[in-house]
Each structure stands twice: as structure tokens, then as C-alpha cells.
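Support request, priority: normal
Reporter: lab tech (M.K.)
Component: structure prediction queue

Hi team, I submitted a job for DUF2817 domain-containing protein from Shewanella atlantica yesterday, and the status page still shows it as pending. I've pasted the exact input below so you can check whether something in the sequence is tripping the parser. The sequence length should be 306 residues. Please let me know if I need to resubmit or if it's stuck on your end.
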Amino acid sequence: MKQSDTYSIGILGSKWGEEEKKRWLLRQEVRRSYKKEVLSKLEPLKEGFDVEQYGELSYDAGKYPLFVVKNRKWDSNKATILVTGGVHGYETSGVQGAIRFLETKAELYGKQFNIIVAPCLSPWGYETINRWNPNAVDPNRSFYEDSPSEEAATLMRYIAALELKLTAHIDLHETTDTDNSEFRPALAARDGSVHNNWNIPDGFYLVGDTENPVDEFQKAVIEVVAQVTHIAPPDEEGKLIGVELSQEGVVNYATKALGLCIGFSGAAFTTTTEVYPDSPLVDDENCILAQVAAITGGLDFILETV
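Reply from support: The job had stalled in the queue. We restarted it manually and it finished. Here are the results:
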């Protein structure tokens, strides 16, 4: 029996081989421009920040330079903050929220922190509006040694080479309706597993780390974001995306075991944002502002308490 009940590629119950991955890749097409929507916005930042290329992805679809933006007044006595966006390239406000933070807030916070922002880890995913990279690998399940994801491996090498201790790592994401209509069915087909349709939370929420939940930090972020957009309520089972709430708007994952981006950094304060851009209560600008609020809310908490 074919996988057509849930996805158009593969045989039900069987993992994809190289042929299925090639068929999937042939279906992908460029739908927007990394150069126009991301790289062009980094150019003006060079006046006040160090914009540094930390690697390049080379796929058959093209070469994609990868950049970080750092404040110039680097001081080893300051706490160092990492902000990542576009680990999943299709999650637009993660990328644009990181850039907006640089455009509007980073200079101010750079007086008190060393700031590193990697605004778009997955440029091919950004252009094709995709969760995976061209090899059908999810970068946000690949932050571990000998990673199969160039996107994850390149960032990890860069951060390791800096030889510094991160105080905070804020990773900017979205949960979209296409998670259920496209990406989870594709995942089930690729892995030969069962696809469970999760409820998509209507609103903003955070994913913390079960090993280091830093509850007060998460609470502070939620409180600031709630001034900008609505926080996702729990479903009828009291959960978000199938996970028990640890507090309002927050669930915790085993981030290191799952290979999530915030799991690799070893930062004292970590969180993954999840914006819901398909809500009738928000628009693109509101989603971007929510991401910026999450960053500033976390940094203000650190300034006030650490």
C-alpha cells in the first residue's frame, strides 16, 4: 500500500531511501530570495556591527553564505548572548525577528552584553519555505557531534572556535498550520512511522529544556511577549503540542537528547520561541515584534537578576 493516505512519496510503513529523497527534492522550488530578504538587510548593519561570514552551504541548488552579526564593543567581562533564527528556514518571523532585533535593539543591549546573532541558519530552507535541508534532514534535530546537517555543524564549529561561555541562547521559531498539513506527514513518510495530527496552539509559546528549565526566565519572557501578542492557551488535555505545560505558555523538551539548537550551546539561560503566524489575531509585523519582545524580555531578566 502506498503512503498516499498521508503523503504522496514512499510506501506506508517503510523508511525513505535515496530514491524517495530525490523525488522529494525535485518537488521543492525557490519561492523567495535569501539575498533580497536577508543578506540585503545585513548590509546597512555593517556601519555599526561586525558582519562576519562563518561558513557557506554548497548544495546542487546553489551556494549559500552564512553570516553572524556581532556588536563591536566586545568585552570579555560581559555576558555573551547568542540569538539564532531560521534553523527551520520556513519559519519567517524567526529570521526577520532576529534582523529586526539587530536593527532596533541590539545596539542598546550591546552596551551590556556581547551579542552574536545568526539570523538565518537554513537559507535554502528559507528560499524554498522548508523545514528540512535538501538532504531531507531537519537541522533542528541535528545539533550533536558528527551532525548530518551542514547548517547545524557549521554553526557549532563557529561557536566552539570562539572558546567562550554563553550566558543565554534564544532560538527563534514558529509553529504553523503547515506543520500538520505538510511537515509532519512528510516526517512520518520519511521515517516509516505513524503521523499523529497534533493540535496547533493558537498563540505564542516557549520550549525550555527539561534539564535546565530556568522557569523564572521563561516566565519573564512570556510576560513581556504577552504585551505584544496573545499567549497560546492549553488544549482540552491541558497540553501544548502534546506536551504537559510547565507553566503558562511554556513546555519543556529534552533539548540535548533531541538535537535541538538550544541544546548544543551550554548556555545558562535557553529558550526556543514559537510564534503562530496563521492565527487570525496576528499579522506578519506582530509576529516579528513578538520575536523581538522575547529577546529583550530575556535579556532584561538577566540584567535584573544575574
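The chain has a mean pLDDT of 95. The CA atoms of residues 227 and 293 lie 9 Å apart. Let us know if anything else looks off. Ticket resolved.
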